[in-house]
Amino acid sequence: MQGPLVNEMQSVAMGVPDVAAAERFYTDIWRLSVAARTPTTVYLRGTGAAHHIVSLTAAQAPELLALTLGAPSREAIDALAAAVPRHGGTVLAAPAESADPAGGYGLALRDPEGRILRVVHGTARHADTTPERDRPQRLAHVVMNSRDVPAMQRFYADALGFRLSDRTRIMAFMRCNTDHHNIALADADNDCLNHIAFVMPDLDGVMRGGGRMKDAGHPVQWGPGRHGPGNNVFNYFVGPFDFVIEYTAEVSTADEDYKVGMPEDWKWPPGRIDHWGVGTPPSAELKAAQRRIRFADNLRV
């Protein structure tokens, strides 16, 4: 098959010990809204078109149950079913119609380090997509710790069609559309979730969201600042059950002519870790939380 097999970051499925508490946080404070509800799961949307961008399901311990990506066609789903095993992954659920409220046609797979991903095509979309000043629109990216970034970079490129945008000393930034990155792989001694980033309409939304989080007892753990790769503005927080979450905006785009940066292109002056250098550096609490959320062992969504 010609063309990309994956072209969108759609949602994350969180396993949490207290679904009701997590729902209150993500609706009242983080400012998502309920898109659907089943006996086991709450589905939350942003102001964008995606049916949902977060789902919450009961789990004994906090974990990331799955990451859901979008595919451009049913043919792409079928091609993925053949490509994933060739490149070291495992197909956990063969292509079929999805039973979750978003619908669509998709499959589930496990990458070589054990993360579960769903890839779907034809999911339900919302028509009421009016941006609001300090509400998340969609997912920006998910960053995953990896014990072997070069191997994982090859898998996501060869099996799913991601492209490298930039490689820094500690991270590989990869894209499946024109966003600078949809996933990033962080060099680490573990394979936990690093963080989940949500797109806000603009810098003002990032800052207003930061103030709201601070008022609710969730202080900024890194930021405000402007990253190097991606050039996006950011505020990071530790949310309920130690999920690290980010408000971001102004993510740069990357087209066919984008020049891939290497570590020597992304060096900061001493004491500087972002363009602005005015916000707080990453806190010890943030760094600890980035090692706590594991990916689920078994397919549950």
Write the layout of secondary structure elements.
Blueprint: E1 8-16, H1 19-29, E2 33-37, E3 41-45, E4 54-58, E5 63-70, H2 74-86, E6 90-97, E7 105-110, E8 116-121, E9 138-146, H3 149-158, E10 163-167, E11 171-175, E12 183-187, E13 193-199, H4 203-215, E14 222-226, E15 233-238, E16 244-249, H5 284-289, E17 294-295
Parallel strand pairs: 1-4, 5-8, 5-17, 9-12, 13-16
Antiparallel strand pairs: 1-5, 2-3, 3-4, 6-7, 7-8, 9-13, 10-11, 11-12, 14-15, 15-16
Summarize the structure.
By secondary structure, the protein is of the alpha/beta class. It has five helices and 17 strands. The strands form two sheets. Strands 1, 2, 3, 4, 5, 6, 7, 8 and 17 form a nine-stranded mixed beta sheet that branches.
Rg of Cα set: 18 Å
| The number of domains | 2
Output the CATH homologous superfamily of the largest domain: 2,3-Dihydroxybiphenyl 1,2-Dioxygenase, domain 1
For the sheet with most strands, the description reads: 9 strands, mixed
What sequence of helices (H) and strands (E) makes up the elements? EHEEEEHEEEEHEEEEHEEEHE
User: How many strand units?
Assistant: 17
